[in-house]
């Protein structure tokens, strides 16, 4: 899986950091690992940290949407944290509204929302 | 940005007034400015005042939808205020149900809903 992505358990959520040079094969590995860990560790949420991403394209947008879709099907909510303004603008211009995800300002905010959920 | 749009901070929300002669380039500026201000000023909501709009078309509908989409991705709720009945009818006829937005009768109503959120 190299240095591109890391998955850490924080409280009842899995924190996934997505690096900006993520590739197709790494994403397939990540989907696989993440889905198993959601299922085995019985987590309530997945927090995708995308603060490393300065720009996005349809590939990265699709990656986020797919990870959120997988998480929802496994009964975990997805929070995206660290989104830059330019990334939000680009995603919407690409028509990628990420309906499956919630956004939180930081990991702390995401965890506090998950505690209340 | 000229006289078409203005952004004001009111309590914990950004009030955006959309004028009826908004153009493509102005909207791109607005998206950019708004997304940065949401992120920097850590606001909870965006209130889009569209009372100046007497008619809408798919362009304006898409503008509203995109502003709401960007706001949601940056963790701010969007309220649309001042919508005329004819505008609501047209938007629905165009198939633009604006699922990302909430509607409030006035700025006061929107702010009180944001306070409770």
Can you tag this structure with a few keywords?
45% helix, homodimer, 117 residues, five-stranded mixed sheet, Transcription Regulator spoIIAA
**Rg from alpha-carbon coordinates of chain A:** 13 Å
Q: Can you tell me the number of structural domains of chain A?
A: 1
What is the oligomer described by this structure?
A: homodimer
Order of helices and strands of chain A: EEHEHEHEH
Output mean pLDDT of chain A: 91
Précis, in short:
The structure is a homodimer of 117-residue chains. Chain A has 117 residues and is of the alpha/beta class. Helix content of chain A is 45%, strand content 22%.
Please specify the SSE layout and strand pairing.
The structure is a homodimer of 117-residue chains.
Chain A: E1 5-10, E2 13-18, H1 24-41, E3 45-49, H2 58-73, E4 77-81, H3 85-93, E5 101-104, H4 107-116
Parallel strand pairs in A: 2-3, 3-4, 4-5
Antiparallel strand pairs in A: 1-2
Helix pairs in contact in A: 1-2
What does this structure look like?
Two copies of one chain form a homodimer. With 117 residues, the first copy, chain A, is an alpha/beta fold. The first copy, chain A, has one domain (6-112): 2-Layer Sandwich (Transcription Regulator spoIIAA), CATH 3.30.750. Chain A is 45% helix and 22% strand. Chain A is built from four helices and five strands. Chain A has helices at residues 24-41, 58-73, 85-93, 107-116, and strands at 5-10, 13-18, 45-49, 77-81, 101-104. Chain A has a five-stranded mixed sheet. The N and C termini of chain A lie far apart (31 Å). The interface between A and B is medium-sized, with 18 and 15 residues. Chains A, B: It holds the Pfam family STAS. Chains A, B: Residues 3-114 form the STAS domain. Chains A, B: InterPro entries: Bact_StressResp_Reg, STAS_dom, STAS_dom_sf.
């Amino acid at each position: 899986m190299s240095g591109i992505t890391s998955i850490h358990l924080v409280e009842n959520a899995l924190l996934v950091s997505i690096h900006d040079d993520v590739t197709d094969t790494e994403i397939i590995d990540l989907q696989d690992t993440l889905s198993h860990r959601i299922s085995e560790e019985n987590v309530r949420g997945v927090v995708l940290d995308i603060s490393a991403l300065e720009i996005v394209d349809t590939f990265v947008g699709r990656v986020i949407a797919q990870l959120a879709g997988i998480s929802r099907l496994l009964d975990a909510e997805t929070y995206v944290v660290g989104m830059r303004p330019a990334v939000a603008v680009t995603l919407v211009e690409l028509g990628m509204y990420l309906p499956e995800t919630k956004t939180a300002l930081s990991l702390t905010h995401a965890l506090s929302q998950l505690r209340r959920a």
